[in-house]
Specification:
The protein has 270 residues and is α+β, with helices and mostly antiparallel strands. It has helices at 3-14, 20-30, 43-52, 69-101, 135-144, 158-168, 174-182, 205-218, 230-241, 255-268; strands at 57-60, 63-66, 107-108, 121-127, 148-154, 219-225. The chain starts with a helix and ends with a helix. InterPro entries: GIY_YIG_cat (IPR049311). It comes from Urechidicola vernalis.
Length: 270
């Protein structure tokens, strides 16, 4: 809220003319307006702002009151418009989450090749039958009472990040590396030697093909294209659902998964 908007609200609430120091004291008390540096509002600032908005305020002696109903209505409209915009963002966020997590919207990973857009967004990966995983991992999903294995974001392109890297091994997909390790695959020994990044291990082409085949047979996926608050939405969903193969920001991250990934790194580093 602007300072003159805050002054307007104070005068509307009190319904009496007030001195600059009185208005400043009230603003400092209820924090309706805050300065960028966090310091207290001074009466001199109130006087200067009132002087700059003669269509809103009138000053008689040392007392300030509202002058124009039209101006007040305009300020109130701006405040309401801002509140409506914030509510809209919240509603849009809730709608995005509902669309993303609704199981009815999920599709078999094998049939999405030409459907994923080249735009930012969020994605969620589920497993059709948790029993196809080794017992220790399927047991965790049973305890968590869902079949969600991964939630992620694509800051630039769902097509490149989600489809290409995570599901088709075209690049360095965190999910693909984790899934390969869980399925029992390991990288070729020494394949990271001389590489700048000593963490992004990859599997042989033969094993990549097997993992992709497994993905197509066992995983169902969904996504929403958006660039609105995707980082915070992802963080919230990870904390809420504790997806099986998410590590970063996941309170339920599995030690066994980290061990499997570290073993792959050790092998790849030779």
């Amino acid at each position: 809220m602007t300072l003159h908007g805050a002054i307007t609200q104070i005068l509307l609430n009190t319904k009496v003319a007030m001195s600059p120091s009185g208005i400043a004291n009230e603003l400092n008390k209820i924090k309706l307006y805050s300065k960028k540096d966090g310091s207290a509002i001074k009466s001199s600032q109130i006087g200067a702002r009132v002087k700059n908005y003669p269509h809103l305020f009138k000053k008689e002696g040392t007392l300030i009151s509202l002058k124009s109903k039209t101006g007040v209505q305009k300020i109130n409209a701006q405040i309401q418009q801002k509140k409506t915009s914030i509510d809209s963002i919240d509603q849009n966020t809730n709608l995005l989450v509902k669309v993303l997590m609704n199981e009815k919207n999920f599709k078999q990973a094998s049939i999405i090749e030409n459907s994923v857009p080249d735009s930012p967004g969020l994605y969620c990966i589920r497993i059709s039958n948790p029993g196809t995983l080794v017992d220790s991992f399927s047991k965790v999903l049973k305890e968590r009472d869902h079949n969600i294995v991964y939630i992620g974001i694509a800051s630039k392109s769902l097509k490149k990040r989600f489809l290409g890297q995570e599901l088709r091994a075209k690049g360095h997909g965190t999910f693909f590396r984790s899934l390969g390790a869980v399925l029992g695959y390991t990288p070729e020994k020494g394949s990271l030697i001389g590489k700048r990044n000593q963490n992004n291990y990859t599997f042989s082409q033969k094993n990549e093909a097997k993992i992709i085949h497994w993905i197509n047979d066992n995983l169902i996926v969904n996504w929403v294209a958006t660039d609105n608050e995707i980082n915070s939405i992802e963080s919230g969903l990870i904390r809420e659902y504790l997806p099986l193969l998410n590590i970063a920001g996941n309170p339920g991250a599995l030690l066994e998964l980290s061990k499997l990934r570290n073993n792959c790194k050790t092998i790849a580093r030779g």
